[in-house]
Design a protein that fits this description.
By secondary structure, the protein is an all-beta fold. 0% of the residues lie in helices and 68% in strands. Strands 1, 2, 3, 4, 5, 6 and 7 form a seven-stranded antiparallel sheet that branches. It starts with a strand and ends with a strand. The mean pLDDT is 84.
Length: 76
């Protein structure tokens, strides 16, 4: 798989139920790390109202800051 770096402004963000995420607070914002192998799923609803499902590799960190999400993943 080829993964690309994503930076998305969002209204709502949900970590798909049934997948496991750890959460912590860091200097850059709220950090989420996917714990499920081979990837976890993330749904991002942008400010335009469109929803997209992304695959995030295991042990990759998702950073959420001020309605912007930064992560390494691919569009599902």
């Amino acid at each position: 798989m080829v993964y690309s770096y994503q930076v998305i402004k969002f209204q709502t963000i949900s970590f798909v139920q049934g997948n496991h995420w750890s959460q912590s607070v860091g200097d850059k914002g709220i950090l989420y790390k996917s714990l499920k192998d081979p990837y976890a799923k993330l749904i991002v609803q942008s400010s335009s109202g469109s929803k997209k499902l992304f695959h995030v590799p295991k042990d990759r960190t998702v950073v959420v800051t001020n309605h912007t999400v930064h992560f390494l993943g691919e569009l599902a």
